[in-house]
Amino acid sequence: MEKIIVNGGQKLNGEVEISSAKNSVLPIIAASILCKDKCVIENAPMLEDVYVICDVLRDLGCKVDIDKVQNNIMVDTTNITLKDPNMELVRKMRASFLIMGPMVARFGRFKLSLPGGCNIGSRPIDLHLKGLKALGAEVDTGHGFVEVDVKKLVGNKIYLDFPSVGATENIMMAAVFAQGETIIQNAAEEPEICDLAMFLNSMGAKIQGAGSGTIKIFGVKELNYTSYKPIYDRIEAGTYMAAAAITRSKIKVIGAIEEHLRPVISKLQECGVTMDIQSDSILIDGSNAFKAVDIKTMPYPGFPTDMQAQMMSLLSLGSGTSIVTETVFENRFMHVSELCRMGANIKIDGRVAVIDGVNKLTGCEVKASDLRAGAALILAGLAAEGMTCIGDIYHIDRGYVDIEKKLKRLGADIKRINE
Ligand code: EPZ
User: Ligand 1 centroid to 299 CA: how many Å?
Assistant: First the structure.
């Protein structure tokens, strides 16, 4: 069982290079199913979730070569087949459901196990299915599976009750070969949506408006070769920015893009962090980060739910009372009990957490409950007095490339052990 051990109190310094966005690369690899033969994803993050979705494509007959030196992934769909995928493999990661749209677009039908919920919420897919039905598909669910069948997908107008990232992505991919025009209204506006649209357009798709609330997809006949470099991971960047703040340090985050991080930059500045913002990096000085601020997570361009836990670690230390409201997921406060074991003073009432800043956290044994909660506990450990031992770090490895190595290079006293 691997664990991460942090001895707190070290200042950070130097610079850290951010990897490509997990939440771009996963839908992009799913979208490669739409390419008639080969495509290449450059600078891909070598993460557990990326390996899983590559295995799912291999299971469908694709050739997938992962070059861990160049960090490139080559997908060749020449021999892809319409088969029921290995459901055990698919269930390893919810994001596998993103292959539904492309498989239906390519083959006219597909069967997948219903993605389970996870620790942060029930994670329904009703909006994904609403979109596929609007494009003319028959959708049957039962016995833990969902089957989609259609003779020909026909473009339509689809309104999303919630700007769901995954639903926007699945519908966009399903519509690429649909007859005529598809309009997605109240679409998700995350940068990863734009990245997916740019990847698809680089193969010959005709998608307009990605990044706005209204996306138009004009059906085309086929998609061809591309070699594509995804955007930097704005959540990984925000996590290291929060690390500088919580340790009151000054570091340079290479790959922190202002346009993708405006709410995080704004809230950190309200905390007292100062920044020198360049086109492809941010020099962040957390020396004076101690003020309490209120945060309410919202779909992009609001404050990202994926940064809520990390900010809560920061707000646990310092003076004043902060209110954190989680509006996106119904159960995304599981890091709170672990932070309280480290001495934080946080009370939860439904989707609202009230944080009274304390003057110190103390290290202890804690467990990661999900990806971002795990990152938050590492941040808390960096600032805590004594040793923090974080278990269940497989959650963290799903979304952060070499997190302990990158922090160690910044001066943290951190290591991974295998008990
Ligand atoms: C994506 O998940 C990300 N994952 C999540 O990142 C991120 O937190 C989330 O978007 C929100 O930004 C990937 O991109 C792989 P949603 P997704 O569909 O697509 C409701 C991380 O830590 N909803 O936007 O599953 C749902 O219940 C992960 O990197 C419906 O009601 O998120 C939730 O409350 C965690 N019906 C809200 O929308 C649907 O059909 C947001 O879900 C779909 C979603």
Answer: 9
Our answer on whether the CB atom of 165 is closer than 6 Å to any ligand 1 atom is yes
Note the pLDDT of residue 318: 82
Index of the ligand 1 atom closest to the CA of residue 399: 29
Rounded CA separation 107/122 (Å): 29
SS3 96: helix
Task: State the residue for tokens 């639903």.
Answer: 167
State the CB neighbour count (10 A cutoff) for residue 389: 17
Residue nearest to atom 21 of ligand 1 (CA): 306
**Which pLDDT tens digit goes with each residue over 69-106?**
999 999 999 999 999 999 999 998 999 999 999 999 99
Q: Residue 204 to residues 37, 173, 224: CA-CA distances in angstroms?
A: 13, 13, 7
274: confidence class by pLDDT, cuts 50, 70, 90: very high
CA distances from residue 171 to 103, 154, 159, 165, 191 in whole angstroms, order as listed: 12, 12, 11, 10, 17
Residue of 54, 62, 118, 271 marked catalytic: 118
CA distance 255 to 266: 18
Contact criterion met (CB below 8 Å) for 394 and 2:
yes
Name, in order, each residue with C-beta under 8 angstroms of 405's C-beta and a sequence gap of 6 or more: none
Give the residue among 370, 309, 377 at the shortest CA–CA distance from 119: 370
Residue 340 bears catalytic tag: no
Q: What mean pLDDT, rounded, does the chain reach? A: 96
The Cα–Cα gap between 240 and 12 comes to 10
The H or E element spanning position 288 is none
Atom number of ligand 1 nearest to Cα 169: 19
Cα(287)–Cα(247) distance, integer angstroms: 8
Cβ contact 281:255 at 8 Å: yes
Gap between the Cα atoms of 66 and 74, Å rounded: 7
CB of 302 sitting under 6 A from ligand 1 = no
CB of residue 372 inside a 6 A radius of ligand 1:
yes
* 43: three-class secondary structure by DSSP: coil
Q: Give the tokens for residue 362.
A: 């103390």
The answer, yes or no, to whether any atom of ligand 1 lies below 6 A from the CB of 263, is: no
Q: In this structure, which residue's CA is closest to atom 30 in ligand 1?
A: 124
